[in-house]
Design goal:
This protein has four helices and three strands. With 117 residues, the chain is α+β, with helices and mostly antiparallel strands. The protein has one domain. Helix 2 crosses helix 4. It is elongated, with a radius of gyration of 20 Å.
């Protein structure tokens, strides 16, 4: 059995994530840059975690629900996909925070900072 879901990307075109079940084993493949090199990507983990916001097209929600049933039947996965997805969201939020702080700091340095005597 194969479930193919188009995942939202940072660009305009979606990535295709394929969930394959063969011989009672689930494997996952994504055609994003990381996935092409066989690495774990956010598209895989967030879809495995059931994150509907990662869907490129909401009409694929039934596929995501079908995937959730498969994931529930894979005790080896446990809460790992959800934990990874949550950690990645925290990292993205903090990276945005660091970017904003650096921007503000850079602006202060351009204007000059007061040196106390």
């Amino acid at each position: 059995m194969k479930i193919s879901i188009r995942a939202r990307s940072s660009g305009d075109a979606p990535y295709q994530v394929d969930f394959l079940v063969e011989d009672n084993k689930l494997s996952v493949h994504c055609n994003c840059q990381a996935g092409i090199f066989g690495k774990l990507c956010k598209h895989k983990t967030e879809l495995l975690a059931g994150d509907a916001s990662r869907l490129f097209d909401e009409s694929e929600t039934p596929k995501l629900e079908k995937l959730a049933i498969l994931v529930a039947r894979a005790p080896e996965l446990g809460n790992i996909p959800k934990a990874i997805a949550e950690a990645e969201k925290i990292i993205r939020r903090e990276q945005a925070n660091v970017k904003q702080i650096k921007k503000e700091f850079g602006e202060k340095l351009k204007k000059g900072v007061v040196i106390l005597s």
